[in-house]
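Review form for a predicted model. The reviewer records the input and the model, then writes brief findings.
Reviewer: anonymous (R2)
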Amino acid sequence: MHKFEHIPPHPRGILKITVLELISESPKNGSEIMNEIERKTHGTWRPSPGSIYPLLAYLEKQNYIQQKEIDGVKRYVITDKGTSLLKEAREALRKERAFEKFGFLFPLSVDFCNMKEPLYLIYRDLWKTASKVMSLKRENKLSKETENKVVEILTEANKKLEELLKESESTS
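Model under review:
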């Protein structure tokens, strides 16, 4: 057995924070949580039921969330204790600059930390664009023509950004 076999596929604790964040936005059940994580990461991460449901049971046992029947469906809502934990987690993520280390989870961490600084939003949007293109390519939903157009658009955008940065350098 190699020492790298037990490296988790995502940073430790991020699933707990992610689940609390999603439930704080609106009541959700396990399936809705898995779907939302997959959507927000553009298909790069979909936690398994074996990860989500035991975590929901743990969070409920710790009184961070509670189950309520909403529109005939059992969903989880965040408690005051869960809101406090989430606030602490956001601060920890912000202080540790964890959003710079999360790779494919970068958009989640920026959104969860409520980061509105332009630089982080730029990084997030660049990541989302790259992720979407890679996802379409992986699913064979990207024609060669569309792929070439994407390259043209990004090449042109890069040229404009380089010009903008040169202007910025000359005025500083």
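Findings: Residues 30 and 49 are 8 Å apart (CA to CA).
Further findings: The chain has seven helices and two strands.
Recommendation: see findings above.
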